[in-house]
């Protein structure tokens, strides 16, 4: 199968699934005067104060972003600069869904590594694409398939849910397109930090809200996005010939 055919197949699969929230999410409109976030938890054992500070509560575009609970943090899970060997230029986003990692390529064989959560749609697309635009606190609307499959759960949100702390898309969303158009593949935040680092039944690629804000600030329009296959998982994490 040609590379172009693979991309077409990915689009077809995702057009049916799209980025779906976890079934346990309860989308609801979030007012701009959302409650003040809870105080930052003390660092968990083995997690430095510097790491805990990366995931402290913050305020963004009028919304409170809660701190990530200390129980969900480890040094390995936190975003960090790592060695990464690739021919893709700096600014490229490389998603390794099978390893639950996302890399933002930097100069000098380095990358910023983020931990991600992956849903079924997150495994449905591989290959190269680009992100023509992103949205802050994006609006979310359930797909026709979701409404037909679970009308009781998704019916109240059929007209869409405004962005906010309870929205399944979180604080930012990067929209992924290729030569065919919208792939329906999204890289986005989440109101469910426990899902980060796991494989769930629904959704695309989810990051902690603090991490998707960090990534979005460093992602230019039309940035290249590469999604690895299972056979390619781990690519770039060892030096050439290693």
Automatic annotation (TrEMBL):
Q: Which residues form the L,D-TPase catalytic domain?
A: 91-228
List the Gene3D superfamilies hit by this protein, alphabetically.
L,D-transpeptidase catalytic domain-like
Q: Which keywords, in A-to-Z order, does the entry hold?
A: Cell shape, Cell wall biogenesis/degradation, Glycosyltransferase, Hydrolase, Peptidoglycan synthesis, Signal, Transferase
Query: CDD domains of this UniProt entry?
Result: YkuD_like (cd16913)
Q: Which residues form the active site?
A: 188, 204
Gene Ontology MF terms in the entry: glycosyltransferase activity; peptidoglycan L,D-transpeptidase activity
Q: Which GO terms describe its biological process?
A: cell wall organization; peptidoglycan-protein cross-linking; regulation of cell shape
Q: In which pathway does it act?
A: Cell wall biogenesis; peptidoglycan biosynthesis
Q: Where is the signal peptide?
A: 1-23
Gene Ontology CC terms, in alphabetical order: extracellular region
InterPro entries named among the record's database cross-references: LD-transpeptidase, LD_TPept_cat_dom, Transpep_catalytic_dom
The UniProt family comment states: Belongs to the YkuD family.
Q: What is this protein called?
A: L,D-transpeptidase
Origin species? Paracoccus aestuarii
